[in-house]
Amino acid sequence: MEKYLKPQEQTAISLFDKERELHEESLIARVWLISDLQQSIPEKAKRSLYTALEDFYEMKLKCDRIWYMGDSIEGSDMKHLEEMTAMQQDAFEKLGIPLCYVMGNHDMDIMHKGKAPVFYNMVKAHKDWKCIDKCDDFYFEDTIGSFNVVFLSDHYAKDLSWWACHGRVYGDESGYPHSEKDLKALSERIKNSGKKTLTVSHYSYPGGNRASNFLGMMMPLPENVFMHIYGHSHIGDFTWAGKDVMRKISWVNDCDIPQVDIASLEKDRGNAIRSAFLEIYPEAVKISFRDHDRKMWTESFTKAIFNS
Length: 308
Prior knowledge:
This protein is an alpha/beta fold. The protein has helices spanning 15-23, 42-59, 78-95, 118-125, 180-193, 213-216, and strands at 29-34, 65-68, 99-101, 139-144, 147-152, 155-156, 162-165, 168-171, 197-201, 225-230, 249-251, 258-261, 265-266, 272-280, 284-291, 296-304. The strands form three sheets. Strands 1, 2, 3, 13, 14, 15 and 16 form a seven-stranded mixed sheet that branches. A six-stranded mixed sheet has the order 4-5-9-10-12-11, with no helix packed on it.
């Protein structure tokens, strides 16, 4: 790891850090939000991951969770996939922070060779980490502070006959068990819970960057959905991201629900080794974006909590 750590000059404390210190005593919970390390070459993955980790260690921010929004790996070279999976397992285990993970489309690349996703199986076997319980589930739940959290994941058949990613089903579509009725039922379940809810996925709802038709079947979202957080659309990726290539904050179509794109933890496609931090306070939820290569905060977004 040391070969990737670059000496950098110590910068003066930023306005972001001053504000954080001012409110630290009222902080309820903090989550490190990461997505789209997405490298097919292990050396490139190491460079991006270790740059982010070096900065994370230097910040000394106590985090209660890590939420990993998919595309942890890329490609179908099994040797490379296993190396990159082991590298990340080792790195995140050393942090000692509970991790929640959803699959993204590139986590499923190996399915084209009739093999199960490597990173998912590693997370599933880890006693302190969470993901979909069964490989053909499309969501799981957790809590953070007073919020319920619904994680929406790509998924696949136990017999590998089909897999669902990028808003569509591949392989034997006739065996796919979920329909719009199931998505609507989840939306109703969220509504009936009465709890403020965060949703987390690899993809956005309609209105966001590179939106998912699958998630669109949940709409209209209930009013107690507070915010959506996703990856997939790498900020600065002019090849795939389209006209909204630099957009981080958008709103779900026809809903007063912000959705936040935090991708990506690499800068071969994106324009920065980027992640974000979600902080929950009694009166607001704040997301701050971090450029790990420059070791600096770049933007933040805050939404007030109204207790009805």
